[in-house]
Amino acid sequence: MSLMILPKEAIAPFVEAMMADYRVVGPKAKGPQFVFDVLETSDELRLDYNTTILPPKKFFQPPRERLLTFKGRPKPEVRMVVEAEPTVLFGVHSCDLHALQLLDRAFADVYPDHHYLKRRESTLIVGLECLGPCDEYAFCNSMGTMNAYDGFDLYLTDIGEGYVVEVATEAGERLLNDYADGSVRAATETEWHEVETLRRTKGDRFPNRLEFSTADLVPMLTLAYGHPIWDEIGARCLGCGSCTNVCPTCYCFDVLDDVDFSLVNGERQRQWDSCLLDDFARVAGGENFRETYADRLRHRHMHKLKYLYERFGLPGCVGCGRCSRTCVAKINIVETLNAIHRAVIPQKEVEL
Question: Dmax of the chain from CA atoms?
């Protein structure tokens, strides 16, 4: 990994140059909030953003996409559809980088998902150190996702006059060489130490945090499975699925076939689904394996913080706080986990 310096005034020309050959996606303002979207001009890029409404996963797993088209007659025909184009995803914070690493594992595991993987393969990622004051919901420090050391091609850290650029891959090096127009120089040792200092002190910007170590999450949730606290929290849940829609690591989907009026041509589509919705665990005959709000809320926490960790060694929560921020019932994941910890751990000590 090499370290370079890119002056701030070179960012706009760098982005504009990439637009000639890539679809460039970055954070843009949308009223008082921010979204990841395709940039029309470099002026739209906002590197001072805090957290976007939706995570960048929507460019790898779109909310709705075509998987294949089919024809029934005269001769049955099926054509796989993979919609991917060369893309640069610019300005991704560390929590979302960690989330993409989990999605990479999930979509490559057992039955590789060619749609996701093709988009991932077609995308270069430029990460961005988030150094502004965090809002009341983020808790990346608690989840170990505060810093990113891989999962990107280039990584930018603002040091005032310019950005320290960590070049992590050969593709990232080519991107810098081909489109930065010779405006980069090697970083000095002093500038690298400045980056290290910024990362060491970054944790002070997260006032929201867990009261316990994440190493306790799996055993804590195992003990909490039958605890009545889920009924208390579930009584507040509306089952709307907003939390899963904005989550950077939720990847559940539904598949449906849409056939035209001729009953000859059609397409298979995939769309986001949510384990918080009533029909998610309903099967033929009407049986619902998670009938109550409490059942579904418990499953979501178990899946993100226990099952995924046991399967991939990575937590399904990266501490971005989007779920707490968007919940209309004001269910806060940090408050929930801290409440479960306080309720379960004394019980564990008594049993011992």
Answer: 71
Q: What angle do CA 240, 245, 250 make, to 5 degrees?
A: 115
Count other C-beta atoms under 10 Å from residue 300's C-beta.
23
SS3 99: helix
**Rounded distance between C-alpha atoms, residue 4 and residue 228, angstroms:** 54
Name residue, tokens 């002093």: 190
Q: What is the pLDDT of residues 278-322, one digit of tens each?
A: 999 999 999 999 999 999 999 999 999 999 999 999 989 999 999
Helices assigned H by DSSP within the chain: 11-19, 94-108, 114-121, 140-143, 170-179, 189-200, 217-224, 229-234, 242-246, 293-302, 308-312, 322-326, 333-351
- Mode of pairing for the β-strands spanning 77-80 and 64-71: antiparallel
What mean pLDDT is reported for the chain? Answer: 93
HSE of 284, CA atoms in CB hemisphere, 13 A: 0
In DSSP notation, 184-241 reads: -EEPPHHHHHHHHHHHHTGGGG-----SS-GGGHHHHHHHHTT-THHHHHHTT-----
- The domains of the chain are located at 2-205, 214-351
- Per-residue exposure over 176-215, b if at least 16 CB sit within 10 Å of its own CB, e if not: beebbeebbeebeeebeebbeebbeebeeebebbbebebe
Query: 333-351 vs 293-302: helix axis angle to the nearest 10?
Result: 80
Q: Which amino acid is at 213?
A: S
Checking DSSP bridges between strand 154-158 and strand 162-167, what pairing results, if any? Answer: antiparallel
Instruction: Tell whether pTM > 0.70.
Output: yes
